[in-house]
Amino acid sequence: MRSRTWLGRGLLILAAALAVTAVLGPLVLDVIHYRTSPTSLDQIVGVDAASLFLAVPACLVAGVLVLRSHPAGPVLGLAPAVFAAYTSTQLIIGNEYRDLAGNVERFFPLLLGVFVLAGALAVTAWTASSETPLPRTGGDRLAGILLLVIAAFIVVGLHLPSYLDALSDSPSNVGNLTSPTAFWVVKFMDLGIVAPAAIVVGVGMIRRRRWARRPMYALVGGYALLGASVAAMAVTMYAADDPDSSLGIAVAASVAGAALLGLAIYLYRPLFGRRTQPQAARATALAAEPLLRRTS
Predict the structure, then answer these.
(1) Which residues lie below 8 Å from residue 104, measured CB to CB, with a gap of 6+?
(2) What is the pLDDT averaged over residues 105-110?
(3) Start-to-end Cα distance in the chain
(4) 8 vs 248, which has greater pLDDT?
(5) pLDDT value at position 137?
(6) Are 34 and 40 spatial neighbours (Cβ–Cβ below 8 Å)?
(7) Phi, psi of 222 (to 5 degrees)
(8) Count of beta carbons in the 10 Å neighbourhood of residue 87
(9) Do 276 and 70 form a contact (C-beta atoms < 8 A)?
(10) How is the chain classified by DSSP, letter by letter?
């Protein structure tokens, strides 16, 4: 009970911290000045929008569900925790501290606090979600295929072209030329962590392995939030006439982000049809009451 109370309250605190970070950033007040290029700033605006309008509500809902002992709470809490840990890492490391102006280092405690809290909550949510078995659904194979498609898109569609461009004698990618630190940090995290995890869990889900179901929820939920942030990035960059943007990219990213959110809702939906633990206990007691009367 103590761990669940801490998890529920921690998710509410994480919601507040994410909201403060987004409001102080370039999306709203522009108080935090990140030491990065205009292209990367447009991308940060997209991350802040997804954080404020999707990750924060997810944290609030998951926190309330956990405090009410609903079994879906810890599982839902995995998604915003993974999202927050991923994005806060890039917001801290992906700056050109020596070459570009800014004041992001003044907000290092806030960003570091988000990362540490998100990591702790992810571990706690993982432990708490293991206390109740996850329902087997008809979407296991679909989830596995989705994760493999995401991994293929990350490797082949997203990072391979820009990597090959970076190896050329005359690279043209704006992100690499103007903010190389963020460029390579994203590649390291996506190709070293995100894509391999998606492949392993995706294969496990296709083979209907029990161990893959819990990380599937974490990855699909996290990817849904990241997909929404990528869509917001693409729209922001197109609106700002960024040289790396186009209407086609903005539309495709928006469609893909909406599809990911829809699939995540479909896969999470069975969790919300289950009774909370107090309700289940009460139902069991009511069902046993006539038997107890007869035996007494």
Answers:
(1) 32, 33, 34, 35, 91, 95, 111
(2) 97
(3) 33
(4) 8
(5) 67
(6) yes
(7) -65, -40
(8) 25
(9) yes
(10) -HHHHHHHHHHHHHHHHHHHHHHHSTTTT--S--SS-HHHHHHHHHHHHHIIIIIHHHHHHHHHHHHTT-THHHHHHHHHHHHHHHHHHHHHHS--TTTS---GGGGHHHHHHHHHHHHHHHHHHHHHHTTSPPPP-TTHHHHHHHHHHHHHIIIIIIIHHHHHHHHSSS---HHHHH-HHHHHHHHHHIIIIIHHHHHHHHHHHHTT-GGGHHHHHHHHHHHHHHHHHHHHHHHHHHHTT-TT--HHHHHHHHHHHHHHHHHHHHHHGGGGGSPPHHHHHHHHHHHHHHHHHHH-
162-187 pLDDT, tens digit each: 999 999 999 998 889 999 999 999 99
Look up residue 198 and give its two tokens. 């998606």
Burial of 249 (0-12, 13-18, 19+ CB in 10 A): middle
pTM, two decimals, is 0.87
Residues in contact with 293: Cβ distance below 8 Å, sequence separation at least 6, in sequence order: none
Give the pLDDT mean for 208-216: 91
Q: Which residues, 6 or more positions from 255, have their beta carbon under 8 angstroms from its beta carbon?
A: none
